[in-house]
Amino acid sequence: GQSLEQPSEVTAVEGAIVQINCTYQTSGFYGLSWYQQHDGGAPTFLSYNALDGLEETGRFSSFLSRSDSYGYLLLQELQMKDSASYFCAAYSLNSGGYQKVTFGTGTKLQVIP
Amino acid sequence: NAGVTQTPKFQVLKTGQSMTLQCAQDMNHNSMYWYRQDPGMGLRLIYYSASEGTTDKGEVPNGYNVSRLNKREFSLRLESAAPSQTSVYFCASSERRRPNEKLFFGSGTQLSVL
């Protein structure tokens, strides 16, 4: 089966750092990704981790621990425009060896002044 | 490049009516996906297609059918719409291309079934 768990809501102050966690149970797992979605918009790609460790892209970093089935997204120097929903997504191979991508339920981040 | 194009953007149906949501991508991607998004439920996978000629069920396939017409196009059909299918539908495409395997999403279709 496939399941990904994230906190439903997080509130943080502008300029601060926030971490959004994701735990997954995914058969055939091979990578974890993060997507951002503003209200009324489509999800957009932020990062992808295939290996354990930290990947950094500007103010955003993402971490993966395959042994713990756990990852997180770290947002630094928060800005008001970072207020959005954030989804972790598990990449796996189905029984036919094809790519499959399933999403968590999302974390709504509110950045306050 | 247009990326992923979905039509229509909005649709209102009556219970029992049928319709097809269209999706096309111009990035020569092999994999295409249909998701639905409901408040508090995240994105749930309906069907996906790894290549032309193959389709697989996702987490919530009941009440839907799909067609991978060619490499570019992947359509989602509701044969007999139900109010429970009121949702926002997203089509996406991707390619297994390291180091980043990103999904590209269409702008979504807001569907209401009355």
Walk me through this protein's architecture.
The complex is a heterodimer of chains A (about 110) and B (about 110). In chain A, about 35% of the residues are buried. Chain A is about 0% helix and about 65% strand. Chain A is globular and about 50 Å long. The model of chain A has no long low-confidence stretch (mean pLDDT about 95). By secondary structure, chain A is mostly beta strands. In chain A, strands 2, 4, 5, 9, 10 and 11 form a 6-stranded mixed sheet that branches. Chain A has a 5-stranded antiparallel sheet with strand order 1-3-8-7-6, with no helix packed on it. Chain B is an all-beta fold. The termini of chain B are far apart. The model of chain B has no long low-confidence stretch (mean pLDDT about 95). Chains A and B meet through strand 4, strand 5, strand 9 and strand 10 of A and strand 4, strand 5, strand 9 and strand 10 of B.
Order of helices and strands of chain A: EEEEEEEEEEE
Helix content of chain B: under 10%
Q: Could you list the spans of chain A in which at least 5 consecutive residues all have pLDDT below 50?
A: none
What is the overall silhouette of chain B?
globular
Largest sheet of chain B: 7 strands, mixed
Largest interface: A-B, 26 and 31 residues
Radius of gyration of chain B: 13 Å
Q: How many distinct beta strands of chain B?
A: 11
Count the beta strands of chain A.
Answer: 11
How many helices of chain A? The count is 0
Uncertain ranges of chain B = none
User: Strand-and-helix sequence of chain B, N→C?
Assistant: EEEEEEEEEEE
Strand content of chain B: over 45%
Helix content of chain A: under 10%
Global shape of chain A: globular
Task: Look at the helices and sheets of chain A and give the structural class.
Answer: mainly beta
Beta-strand residue percentage of chain A: over 45%
